[in-house]
Amino acid sequence: MANNPQTFKRIRQDEKKRQLHKSQITGMRTAKKRFLKAAQNNEDNAQDLYRQAVSAIDRAVTKGHIHKNKAARDKSRLAKKLG
After folding, report:
1. Within a 13 Å sphere around the CA of 36, how many CA atoms are in the beta-carbon half?
2. At what angle do helices 5-40 and 46-62 cross, to 10 degrees?
3. pLDDT of 25-63, one tens digit each?
């Protein structure tokens, strides 16, 4: 590792970015889990939770956190559970 201010700044920026991305990915996974639990228990709010999960997945794709094919696969699997 180089020992200059630019390198240390880059390390700080990367860590901040990593924390932000991590929280957004965690939020997406949580939304998916909430929907799956509601769908399994046939709860009334499953439709709303489905919309929130799909929205979270789409946001993750837009921001480059996950690949678009993974998003399509996840949304397809969630839609099957909704039906």
Report:
1. 11
2. 160
3. 999 999 999 999 999 999 999 999 999 999 999 999 999
pTM for this predicted structure:
0.83
Residue 7 and residue 1 in contact, taking contact as beta carbons nearer than 8 Å: yes
- Kind plus residue range of the DSSP H or E element containing 53: helix 46-62
Tally Cβ neighbours within 10 Å of residue 64. Answer: 9
Q: pLDDT band at residue 1, thresholds of 50, 70 and 90?
A: low
Q: What is d(CA 24, CA 31) in angstroms, rounded to the nearest whole number?
A: 11
